[in-house]
Specification:
The complex is a heterodimer of chains A (290) and B (260). With 290 residues, chain A is mainly α. Chain A is built from 10 helices and no strands. The longest helix of chain A has 40 residues. The relative contact order of chain A is 0.10. Chain B is an alpha/beta fold and 260 residues long. In chain B, helix 7 crosses helix 8. The chains are: A mainly alpha (290), B alpha/beta (260). At the A-B interface, helix 7 and helix 8 of A face strand 6, helix 3, helix 5 and helix 6 of B.
Chain lengths: 290, 260
Amino acid sequence: MTDPAATPSRDSEPSAPDAAAGVRRRSRQRRDKLQAIVFGAGFPILLVLLWDRAVAITGTRLVPSPYQVAVMMYDFTFGGVYDDAFSGTILIHVWKSMQRVYGGFFLAALIGIPLGMMIGRIKILRQLLDPTISLLRPIPVTAWLPLSMIFFGLGPNAAIFLVFLGAFYPILLNTMFGVRSIDPRLFEAAAMLGCSETGMFRQIVLPASLPAILNGLRIAQGFAWILIVVGEMTGVPTGLGSVVMDGRTLSRTDLVITGMIVIGACGFVTDRIIVAISNRLLSWSPQHRE
Amino acid sequence: MNDAPRANILSIRGVTKRFTLGDDEVEALAAVDLTIPQGEFVCLIGASGCGKSTLLRIIAGFEEPSTGEASIRGKTISGPGRDRGMVFQDYALFPWMTVRENISFGPRQRQLPPREIARTTGEFVKMVGLERFADRYPSQLSGGMKQRVAIARVLANDANILLMDEPFGALDALTREQLQHELLQIWSRTGVTAIFVTHSVEEAVLLADRVLVMSAGPGRIDSDVRIDLARPRDVSSPEFNQLRRDIAQRLTSHLAPSRA
């Protein structure tokens, strides 16, 4: 107080790192990052090699080799090999599927996050809705397929509804859990500093439960891509799910695997985007960083 | 302002508190009467379960008394308010806000002009000596620094009663001593009324104008000891030690019957 510069130095504070330690730390971080990439990419490459060997050794004709799938992938992307209905159509399928996946996902987030915050914070709502949610949640999304086709007809809306259902529960439950596990002292602290009950939602409930919400979004986007195949069973002509279903009908396993790989890649990229956003939003919380 | 006769800021009349624990009803506080003048530094001391934290939480407005009434300048306390600021033992800082944002939280609730919020915040960041750490998050601070932020957060909101629930209990001895010293400086500079719960007799005698010794089963105030030692106080002086022994004795004498 009297000497502000000297004051903090007495209680073992984190001090500014000296330059040499900073350089050492940065080079260690670089090595860590490189190692993560080598290991992370190395394992799938190993799996592909094993797959290739397994096909060659067993001589099966039911499962295509990685090379055949690669050719199919090339044709699916650029065309010019088979020149059939699927040649060079990847973008249209990815685009259609993304619309359905993100449509259902964002709809689930738009409803799930505010609803989860309110259920977590307001006891009456919890008593009113919690049993119903627990009752509806175990129902497999695939079981909703007939009803969703009755509600929304043949077409993309039924697919969006199914993706929505799959993404909704992880978002809702994680948000509820996040709100329920907020330290009650934070509400007391906010109240004594003059924060109103409505101001609490934006200023305390949302940021304090953000780690759990983002975790829910991450799980939900995984489910959303999982459900796109089921969603596109509802009689839509385009989309990665419909490509996989068509491949199955036509006994073109190379096409099925190509579709699987593209779905996996889309989910992977979306996951990375959510992780990047999480790291940015949660920079205050060391234990939530990846 | 320390020597003029002062108006009572807080008055507590016949406040009791009962909690239900399962089928049992526990009497946490039995009829407490207490008045505290503006600007006084009061320490509440007593064994665990004597209701000192409960009393503090009633003053803060986090708990309602079962009977009786607590009032600030004649106005009955009906909930938390910005005239009373609590400093918790576990800090209760908002972890997603920087030091500066934590301290400006109160002023922001009042929707003051941004310039004034920035000025007030800067003033209190400076008061607790955290200028260099203003843009850090609580997770990047030591315990002592976190508690400084918690104190500044309450003072920046114009609280005139500072409620402290064993605020230095989790700190190491050196940091604790430092913060006691700083707290006294802030207290004498701002004229804030302080109600400070502690387990430590030495801390109570060092800080307080007045020590309230509480006893458990059910919680009540047993003695009200005035500490008239000149400040800054010398913990090694005979007068200090006399008072310390005296209060320690009162504490243990209350413990004896409850053991029987």
